[in-house]
Amino acid sequence: MKISLKVGMILIASFLLLIGAACSNKKDAVQKVRLAEVTRSVFYTPQYVALEKGFFKEEGLDVELKTTWGGDKTMTALLSDAVDIALVGSETSIYVYAQGTSDPIINFAQLTQTDGTFLVSREKVDHFDWEMLKGTTFLGQRKGGMPQMVGEFVLKKHGIDPQQDLELIQNIDFGNIANSFASGTGDYVQLFEPTASVFEKEGKGYIIASFGEESGHVPYTTFMAKETYLKENEETVEKFVRALYKAQKWVEKSSGEEIAEVVQPYFEDSDIETLAVVIDRYKNQGSFAEKMTLTKEGWENLQAIMKEAGELPERVDYDKLVNTNIVEKVMAE
């Protein structure tokens, strides 16, 4: 009887240990997150910092990053559940909403808060004035995307009609714009970094203005997900945002060179010196959204830019496609 009791107690203890181990494993289990970025850009530096510095891993996340090259492809991946979270321009969530959906795409954290492109001239300009663009050929970005819409918004701000006052070229694929300019197309071009700085270094062009400084704050690139994903994976998304917030704060307090050394693996064709210059340029104009909160003012500015470009399908209330609860919770910790 005593032996049976002893065996029974051992079995119960073993069972409790197994349950404890299972609960512990479940608690410590790494959660996989499939993330799609619309393009590979130094503009997204804090995201790469979160990956390289291990901030996602610290939160128990295994983030799988893929570059989907284009807003339409990125949104298709998100809508088809090929990815969980997308980093893309907020305008895409409006396009999807306007088409009608029972599971809207929600912007939950902002990575960049200005445009990331620069005006590059073929010839060196000592005293630039936007009036100089009149009568010239301007090589812009893809129609309907944020870079082109911001570009037109800034031109109009300076009294230039993009359709009447210059020859606007916007039918060249994003990946070929820089090469087209380098081969002789256009007097001016709208470029992202580090291409703009590389061109300047090689004498192919000269940075003369920042579209980000001219257009003001706008939710240029944000992290977004389906509404159902946010509801079903709130804890995971909270960890995701916490890691990004750590990265944003680290970028804010670090030098361009320190940051460049961390993100260089994502830009193997760029040297540390060029990356540092580019990162400092973005930091100085306040491009990285340290607080990550997509504001109502920014949302309205976005729609004003879209409307000005003739690309706003319908005005959408801030509360319908923006959820700042998670970001605010993380920042309050």
UniProtKB/TrEMBL annotation:
It comes from Siminovitchia thermophila. Belongs to the bacterial solute-binding protein SsuA/TauA family. Keywords: Signal. It holds the Pfam family NMT1_2. Residues 1-24 form the signal peptide. This is NitT/TauT family transport system substrate-binding protein. It is found in: Periplasm.
